[in-house]
Amino acid sequence: MPDKGTVANRVFLHPDCLLHLAGMDHPERPGRLTAVQSALADALVGRGRFTIPRPATLDELLSCHSREYVDLVRKEIRSGAQTLSTGDTQISPGSLAAALAAAGTVISAVDAVLTGDSRTAFCAVRPPGHHASRDKGMGFCIFNNVALGARHAQRKHGIARVLIVDWDVHHGNGTQDIFWSDGSVLFFDTHLGNWYPHTGAASEQGEGKALGLIINRPFARGAGRTEILGAFRDTLVPAAERFRPELVMISAGFDSRAGDPLGGLALSDRDFADLTDLVLGIADRHAGGRVISVLEGGYNLEGLASAVAAHVGRLAAER
Ligand SMILES: [Zn+2]
Predict the structure, then answer these.
(1) If you ran DSSP here, which 8-state letter would residue 179 be given?
(2) SS3 at position 143
(3) CB neighbour class for 197 (10 Å; exposed up to 12, middle 13-18, buried from 19)
(4) Structure confidence at residue 52 (pLDDT)
(5) CB of 299 within 8 A of CB of 262?
(6) What is the pLDDT of residue 4?
(7) Which of 100, 125, 169, 306 sits CB 3.0–4.6 Å from 55 for a disulfide?
(8) For residue 43, is pLDDT > 80?
(9) Do the Cβ atoms of 279 and 291 come closer than 8 Å?
(10) How far apart are the CA of 2 and the centre of ligand 1, in A?
């Protein structure tokens, strides 16, 4: 049972996340967040709580990104550039405020969960983050929101070991890069193989202290419940048993849902609910039930909304 005063779940969203405009025809659009927000308003009446977070600070950004990269992002957005020079991320005048809000949302959620305000949190953010490495934004991402949250948990709250689970259809190459030789983060990633960003082979396992703590499971087009829930049960659960995470985070991309225009996997809303339960089981066993879920991809607006509602419904359930 949660402590007195601890709510089961809070949903964090910052209005500045709507200010990032990637172009009229771009799939990563503000409507994604409004679809998520209305789905959650319907699904969470009386259970979830909406909270407005604060933006990230420069010091927080530098826990995962180089000073040169942060300066480049600020300079290029201010210059009116339409694409980050490091990769395929469209930018607009509001993109810096949005990226700082997205990163700060996850950091605020970490504070809420680690101070006992809520047991779980869902961060409705954009731009997404898991393709952003230390020195490079790409794949619609500017700053690595989930990695910044994990580092904040370690730096400000003394958390030693964080598990990051990434079920987005695309490999979380930026997160993998940031924690490649770290040793304090277990990174487990299921994704579509031979697909953007063309990393994430099973042979990529980390190095040094982190050897074996990077776990990639690429799947063939059309894979779904059997393969992905199977990998969570057969690979993630025993890996977490060895690692004993003190905090669990999810890079929750819903472009792995059937019918996503940028995807090719076949998960259903029920599958996301069951994946959520598997992750909650790991968190209950090792991490005091503490789970922070961070929105990544998901580009079919109706599918995104219903999948997020199924996911957050489980995060918000009393246990
Ligand atoms: Zn994705």
Answers:
(1) T
(2) coil
(3) middle
(4) 83
(5) yes
(6) 61
(7) 100
(8) no
(9) yes
(10) 33
**Model pLDDT for residues 144-163, shown as the tens digit of each residue:** 999 999 999 999 999 999 99
Task: Provide the pairing of β-strand 162-166 with 185-192.
Answer: parallel
Domain 7-315 fold is: Arginase; Chain A (3.40.800)
Structure tokens at 77: 């957005």
Q: Could you tell me the two tokens for 195?
A: 């697909």
Residue-wise pLDDT tens digits, 84-109: 999 999 999 999 999 999 999 999 99
What is the DSSP code (8-state) at residue 295? E
Three-class SS of residue 79?
coil
Task: Compute the distance from residue 279 Cα to the ligand 1 centre, in Å.
Answer: 19
C-alpha 118 – ligand 1 centre gap (Å): 27
Distance 293 CA to ligand 1 centre (A): 15
The pLDDT of residue 244: 98
User: How many Å apart are CA 299 and CA 293, to the nearest integer?
Assistant: 18
Give this prediction's pTM.
0.97
Q: Is 14 a catalytic residue?
A: no
Q: Which of 20, 130, 131, 152 is catalytic?
A: 131
- H/E element, 302: helix 301-315
Strand 162-166 relative to strand 247-252, pairing: parallel
Secondary structure of residue 16 in the 3-state scheme: helix
Residue 1 is predicted with a pLDDT of: 47
Residue 158 alpha carbon to ligand 1 centre in Å: 30
State residue 46's pLDDT score.
Answer: 55
Cα–Cα distances in Å, from 233 out to 44, 209, 239?
28, 25, 10
Torsion of CA 130, 134, 137, 139, to 10 degrees: -30
Percent of the chain with pLDDT over 90: 92
